[in-house]
Amino acid sequence: xxxxxxxxxxxxxxxxxxxxxxxxxxxxxxxxxxxxxxxxxxxxxxxxxxxxxxxxxxxxxxxxxxxxxxxxxxxxxxxxxxxxxxxxxxxxxxxxxxxxxxxxxxxxxxxxxxxxxxxxxxxxxxxxxxxxxxxxxxxxxxxxxxxxxxxxxxxxxxxxxxxxxxxxxxxxxxxxxxxxxxxxxxxxxxxxxxxxxxxxxxxxxxxxxxxxxxxxxxxxxxxxxxxxxxxxxxxxx
Length: 237
Prior knowledge:
hydrolase activity, globular, 7 strands, Rossmann fold, alpha/beta, 7-stranded mixed beta sheet
């Protein structure tokens, strides 16, 4: 695992909502931080609408709580530089992309990463915010002169075969479309977490109680751990 992570160098990890980064790259970021590599994590929104009960969790309350949860998760992962961009949860696709693209490009020029991590064009779950941040980061990476490698989170064919039915029960996909599983040989990063590395990632996820509690209740903690033991990325096309 160390060899894969060392090759990533300085990492900028850019996502739509706090918890995206921990689900998809928590193990990578924690390992990189432990190895002394610079890790900058960016959340485009506070995830203030990420609830099925907006009466109990109005946006101001949920956004504030998710910031606290994210701070706890980043502390577990050892990521000291976590930035929020302040865009509206659920409303990113409606924004003029010029300002956010320019802002992200400036960040990439400033940090000069060796690796940029984000969603692929399908957003994993076809969430419009996920797809929008993927497009913004791709455009910003171009504008910044393509610093380092741009890697997109993906699911392997094996992962989908094992967990696809549970994803349907969990209702994670936002449309009738479904991701296409990637073959192992096509992966740029294929991280399998075990032992303390997996314990740390799960501890970080559990810090985000408002978001993960339903999944843990549905899957049980053993399956939840197994589901989140892999992190896979491909080179951006």
